[in-house]
C-alpha cells in the first residue's frame, strides 16, 4: 500500500497504565474510545498497551499509523469520523509471551481489561468452570512463563507481582458474559490453585474483578468501509472501525487502585451491575442471536434487513414482551420498555450492516447466557417460551450446516464439528434435538432433562423443517 496517506502522531503517546487483551473492532470502538475521551480531557498515565493473543494483523496495520485509527459513527442521518489516540503500543503475544508477562508487572499498570469474546475464557459456558481439557490451558499450566491463554497471562502476571511484593492489578472483563467479573475471578482462581495455593489465596484476597455491562453494536470492518473512509478523509486506515452512535458501559465500582475517570465519558459506576447485565444480555444479545439464526436461514444478510421486516419485528417485540422482560429484575435508572423500543430502532439502523452470519458465530458459547437462562426461568414459572424455543431450534438447524436453499453454511464455532457429527448421526427431529441437548457444555442437566423443553424444541424444529422459517414466524406471531 505504497504512497497512501496514513494517520500520524505529533505528540508522544500516553504512558501505559492499562494492558488490554483482544484489540479487535469492539475494543477499538468502545473502551479505547472511553479512555481516549478521558485522555483528551484530562491527560493522565492511561495509555493502553493492546495485546493480541493470536494474529499480528491489527499490530501491523496500526504500526504504519503511529497506533492511531479512525472510529466511524454510522447513523442513518450520516457519518461522523474521529481519530482515536489512546493506544500507546501493540504487542502480539505469541511472538514474545515473556514480554507480556514483563509488561503486566510494570508498577504503573493498574488495570488489565479484556475483550477476548466468550470462547477466550476457556471455560464451560454451562457451568462457568475452567475447561481443563482446553489445549491452551493444558499448555499454560506446564509453561507459565510463556502462556497462550488470557487466563494464563493473568495468572502469570499476578504471580510475578505477588513474588515481587507488588500490588495486584484490577482485571476488567468487557465481554458479554453474565457477572463477567465473577466468572473471570473463578477461572483465574481455579487456574492459580493448580499453580500454587498460596498465590491463589493472595489473588482471592487482593485482586479485584469488577463486573461490567458493555454495549455498542460494532460490525466487522469491511474493505468497503476502508475505501469509503479514504474517499471522505483522504486517509487509508485499514484499522478503522465502524459503530452505531449508542454506547453504554456500566461498571461495578470495585478497583484495587486508581482508574481513568471513565464516568467523564458517560460510564456508569454502580455497586452491582447484575441487573443491567441481565437486561442487556437477554434483551439485546438474546434477540440478536434469535434474529441471526432465524434471519440467516430465511436468507437475510443483515440485522437491519431482518428487523425491518414487519413480521420479524413483531416477533422480536413479542420475545421482549412475553418471554424476556418478565424474567428480569429492574435495573436502577432503566425503563425496560423504553430500552427494548430503543433496541429495535438500533437494529433497524440501515447504516449498520451487521451480518446475521457474524452474530451467528460461536453459538455454543453464547446461547446459555443469551437465551437458555431466559428459557429456564420461564419454564420454572410454568410458561413455555415458544419464541425463544424457535430461536434455539433455528440454531440447531443452522449448525446442521445446510440452509433453506440447500446451500452449505460456513458454521464458525469451537464445537461446530461435534455438533454437526451429532446431527448427522441422528435420524428423526426428536433424535437430533435429543442428541444436541446432551452437549453438557451448552445445556445444564436440568434444562436438558426438562420434557416440556424437549417437546417444544422438537415441535419448533419440525415446524421450521416443514414450513421454512418465514412461514413459521408468520404463524407464530398470528397464533
Ligand atoms: C452480537 C454482539 O456478535 C454478537 O454476538 O450480539 O456483539 C452485540 O452486537 C454487542 O454485544 C452489542 O453491544
Automatic annotation (TrEMBL):
<dbReference type="Pfam" id="PF01232">
    <property type="entry name" value="Mannitol_dh"/>
</dbReference>
<dbReference type="InterPro" id="IPR013118">
    <property type="entry name" value="Mannitol_DH_C"/>
</dbReference>
<feature type="domain" description="Mannitol dehydrogenase N-terminal">
    <location>
        <begin position="17"/>
        <end position="263"/>
    </location>
</feature>
<dbReference type="InterPro" id="IPR000669">
    <property type="entry name" value="Mannitol_DH"/>
</dbReference>
<dbReference type="InterPro" id="IPR013328">
    <property type="entry name" value="6PGD_dom2"/>
</dbReference>
<dbReference type="InterPro" id="IPR036291">
    <property type="entry name" value="NAD(P)-bd_dom_sf"/>
</dbReference>
<dbReference type="InterPro" id="IPR013131">
    <property type="entry name" value="Mannitol_DH_N"/>
</dbReference>
<dbReference type="InterPro" id="IPR008927">
    <property type="entry name" value="6-PGluconate_DH-like_C_sf"/>
</dbReference>
<keyword id="KW-0560">Oxidoreductase</keyword>
<dbReference type="InterPro" id="IPR050988">
    <property type="entry name" value="Mannitol_DH/Oxidoreductase"/>
</dbReference>
<feature type="domain" description="Mannitol dehydrogenase C-terminal">
    <location>
        <begin position="273"/>
        <end position="464"/>
    </location>
</feature>
<dbReference type="Pfam" id="PF08125">
    <property type="entry name" value="Mannitol_dh_C"/>
</dbReference>
<protein>
    <submittedName>
        <fullName>Mannitol dehydrogenase</fullName>
    </submittedName>
</protein>
